[in-house]
Amino acid sequence: MKSENFETIAIRTQVERSLHKEHSAPIYLTSSYKFDDAEEMRALFANEKEGNVYSRYANPNTSEFIEKMCLLEGAEDGFATATGMAAIFTTFGAFLKNGDHIISSRSVFGSTHQLLTNVFSKWGVTFDYADLDKPEDWEGLIKPNTKMIFVETPSNPGIDIIDLAFLGDLAQKHHQLLVVDNCFATPYLQQPIALGAHISIHSATKYIDGQGRVLGGVILGSKDLITEVMNFARHSGPSLSPFNAWILSKSLETLAVRMDRHCENALKVAEYLEKHPKIKLVKYPFLPSHPQYEIAKKQMKQGGGIVTIVIEGGVEGARKFMDGLKMFSISANLADTRSIATHPATSTHSKLSEAERNIVGIEQGSIRLSIGLEHINDILADIDQALS
């Protein structure tokens, strides 16, 4: 039965059943595949025939995961990687060469910042940062050698947002490749490709898995673009393991119901903290006080599961709060069933200078709260006692 409903697609899309007629897809733990004869082997390696050649290129489990993600996000094709950062590196590596220029949102994950400043810069790729809250500045940064526009929205950890339709029009006008890190929103809350993006990237380690178990990433786009990605990845080898792909594909079956609860809990936490005297600032996309609230309402189904706060007392205030938490986990991960607190200035974004952190809104007292699936009364009670 064909369906256009997110939940049904996520649950019912499955690799072809074997002769054993299994209800749940098996794990294909194989590095290689057998060919019927020499001619079939030749044809497969020549891309004249579709099929599995080597699990660094494709595997039934990764193929199922990719097919689901493509259907859920409206993409033609995709490639699954070992981590979210492998997805970003592979995308940059596939499309950027010496002499190219990239425009990136200033608010990016710390490791993405390191790729731009310390890795691709060595290979002759230059970049300029632009602010998500200043869309009027983006066009002025475009140069004759600009190849790509890269953006996180919502950003990590500042929860800043930019109008993707605006960026899609800008990219089309100047013949740029628009790449969106859609990790925080997931395909359930936001579909960048429908809004004008050429490529959408996910760290599947986060909400796609949703339970803090495995690493993974995925790159989604048109068949032509993903062919370029695969040509690069075929030799650089960032492939997702079959076991992790199986986990992630199964996890997609519950993504919608999990995200509904994450969003419900996170909004209640944001509303509670916005009124708390020890909190200087609360950032959450579906709070009316968020600077890009109207954009968020336009392009996101709900506000997501991440709430970023700035606590009174700077780094000492942040440490006191985090050390006072009893149920929340202190971890660098996010998007887990379990609520997590992170101090970005001393962990995920510690490699940025203080000036760079201040520019993207990461203060010494900034804390990223990944709101989990526990009962909301317990989440609020833990936050309340840690602030007392």
Protein traits:
single chain, 388 residues, alpha/beta, seven-stranded mixed sheet, 14 helices, 15% strand, globular
Describe the structure.
- The chain is of the alpha/beta class and 388 residues long.
- Helix content is 38%, strand content 15%.
- The protein is built from 14 helices and twelve strands.
- The strands form two sheets. Strands 1-7-6-5-4-2-3 form a seven-stranded mixed β-sheet, with helices on both faces. Strands 8-9-12-11-10 form a five-stranded mixed β-sheet.
- Strand 5, helix 7 (186-189) and strand 6 (199-203) form a beta-alpha-beta unit.
- Helix 3 (60-73) runs parallel beside helix 9 (242-252), helix 4 crosses helix 8 and helix 12 packs across helix 14 (376-387).
- The chain is globular and about 75 Å long.
- The modification N6-(pyridoxal phosphate)lysine is found at residue 206.
- It comes from Pedobacter agri.
- Pathway: Amino-acid biosynthesis; L-methionine biosynthesis via de novo pathway; L-homocysteine from O-succinyl-L-homoserine: step 1/1.
- Catalyzes the formation of L-homocysteine from O-succinyl-L-homoserine (OSHS) and hydrogen sulfide.
- Its cofactor is pyridoxal 5'-phosphate.
